[in-house]
Amino acid sequence: MSSWDALSWAKKQQVGNPVRKLILILMCEKVDATFACYPSAKKLAREAECSRSTVIEHQRVLEVELGLVTIAPQSRANGSQSSNRIYINHPDAPHMQPGADAPSSARQPGSGSRTGGG
Hints:
By secondary structure, the protein is of the alpha+beta class. The protein is about 35% helix and about 15% strand. It has one domain: Winged helix-like DNA-binding domain superfamily/Winged helix DNA-binding domain (Arc Repressor Mutant, subunit A, Orthogonal Bundle). The chain has helices at about 5-10, 20-30, 40-50, 50-65; strands at about 35, 70-75, 80-90. A hairpin with a 5-residue loop joins strand 2 (about 70-75) and strand 3 (about 80-90). Helix 2 packs across helix 3 and helix 2 (about 20-30) crosses helix 4 (about 50-65). The longest helix is centred in the middle third of the chain and has 14 residues, at about 50-65. The termini are far apart.
């Protein structure tokens, strides 16, 4: 699996907003072999030419309303928040396979909103 697989999948998704689509594509561009990435909201905002709060809101919609990503908050050893681990819910992703464990500390679609995000 590669970011090419994730990018191809992302382009086919209907997300209802061009900035939201760009944010999904930017996250997919950064995935590892497990379809996970760690971009900060600040970095995504810079790349998408929008505000950090806009990125966070679109990530919330992608996770909670559309179920296209799963966001697992991460923290440093001192307890402060670091960039979230973002799992792309591509059908071939390991965490999407039957019997796979859900990503650690992740909210399931429809479980509420999140704040923060590095």
